[in-house]
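INTERNAL AUDIT FORM
Audit reference: QA-55
Scope: verify that the stored structure record matches its stored sequence.
Auditor: D.O.
Record contents follow.
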Amino acid sequence: MKLQSRRSFLTSLAGISTATWFATYARLSAAESGKVKITDIKTMLLNGPRTYTLVKVETDAGIFGIAEAYGSPGLGIVDAIHGVKELLIGKDPLQIDRLYTGYRYTDGSAHHQQRAMSGIEMALWDLAGKLLNVPTSTLLGGRFRDRVRLYDHAHPSDFLDKKACRDWADEVMENPNGINCHKFGPFRTSPEEDFGKDPSNRLLSSKELRNLRKGFENAREALGWDHDIMIGCHWEFDLRSAIDLAELLADIKPLWLEDPLPVPYSESWKRLTESSPVPICTGENWMRRSEALPFVINSAIDILHPDLRNSGGFLESKRMADLADLYFLPMANHNTGSIVNGMASVQWASSIRDYLACETVFFNGGWMDDVIVHNEPLSKNGFVELTDKPGLGIELDPDVVKAHLVPGETWWG
């Protein structure tokens, strides 16, 4: 079989796993199909470190689903959600694939439209779980795990100061949430202190490379080997600098090097992955599985890292994971959303066979955790344990939400 034909054949298999579990969903939903109609779709903006766009899908059965669309800047997403809701009112909320696939685009606003439909899609899965009285993870094919690992953003105040690194390590080890997986980015120099620094280009200077090697080794030495490290970039380097960065990370063995090159696929991603002694990770800006496809079939990635609020929600991302599974590639989740998207991501992650960790900027016992009604800490030993409650298994606390609404927003009741 020719290489291209083989790739086409393997890619065609990506839907088989999805088709199997979706057939199960069809059987579970058959008894309720056509009995319930969407009556409204509402939004509510929550104010915190970012703006968080919550979505609610209401029905004539009095049952609703909630989820989160992309946040800051939230207004464009809100407009997109309200721009499509009239197309969805009166429809059967259990026909999730049909609703998402049919209405994910509008002229001139494809990006906002995709993010809007991603949030609506996840709210529909919450609603479906409540209508059928099962967790959303059951509808996604069942759980491979009953708890999902988290990773946070934590770094020393000064990587080049060993004492600062030890103080940081003590702090993260004593955190009650128990998270033992931490992401931080490359620290940089300034032109005033580094003659080789040109802030206009994508290169790492020789001094930056030397500093990064020393600083990351200090962090690993202070942290030890019971905690994991990820290195997160922001699509900021040229190919040679990305390779140099990957090579200097070899001794500290990070779980991954994330987003070192600009977002779109190119042969440079393939060359980087082939050259790198550490795993290469990307995907938070992918809007559909088609954008993951060239990375996967060209062996230009080691770990897929979608954000469900960008990538189409649960079903589109599940299909992405099925594609990755054909090439024996694991998944992880980008997530800078509120606790609502954190809990949604955990539901999805439980249904993925090869899965590493879900990003969070919360689950730390602060007010954001209290947006969700709970009796025990949401994060235990760095993991979120899933419940058997229907849908996403979450209930908003109205008092906490009302106290943190964006000015002018009202509780949707």
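Auditor finding: record pair retrieved intact. The radius of gyration is 22 Å.
Action required: none
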